Amino acid sequence: MPNLRHLLILLLVVFTLAGCSTSTLKVEPIEMTENPSAKIFELEEALTGGRAEQINVLSPTWYTKAERYLDKARYGLANNGSISGILTNVAYGHANFKKSQEYADVARKTIPNVIKHVILPMLLEQPSILLTIKVWKMSLSA
């Protein structure tokens, strides 16, 4: 019953990831005496580092939310927005980025098991899938 085993593993992965979505976002406030430009720069650096670690790929939804808050903070700074509004956006950006890191960690732990227990057995049972992948890859490079 390899198909049943695959289905059970897939359901386990889905429920694991779904369980993570129920957690709340913890936003740590930033002191209003902080320099908004410096705080924006810190968030930019964090997101750049996250992109280098492929967090934007492993947790695209939360990473994109963090980028949106960064954009809001930049807009507020460029248009003389309130310091509290800018720093609030930065705080939400950091909170969303932290959440994206958590999801990326789950993905990093889950993906190898899915490959080992679902994808590889599927490829061994149906080698024609490899041929399909090779043809698709060749069509992309043409």
Quick take:
With 142 residues, the protein is mainly α.
Describe the 3D structure:
It is built from 6 helices and no strands. With 142 residues, it is mostly helical. It has one domain (2-141). α1 (2-20) runs antiparallel to α5 and α2 packs parallel to α5 (83-125). The longest helix is centred in the last third of the chain and has 43 residues, at 83-125. It is elongated and about 60 Å long. It starts with a helix and ends with a helix.
From the structure above, extract its key features.
142 residues; mainly alpha
Tell me the layout of helices and strands.
Elements: H1 2-20, H2 36-52, H3 55-58, H4 60-78, H5 83-125, H6 128-141
Helix pairs in contact: 1-5, 2-4, 2-5, 4-5
Distance between the ends? 40 Å
Radius of gyration: 21 Å
Strand residues, percent? under 5%
Integer tally of domains? 1
Largest sheet descriptor: none
Structural class: mainly alpha
Number of helices: 6
Strands, count? 0
Low-confidence stretches: none
Characterize the overall form.
elongated
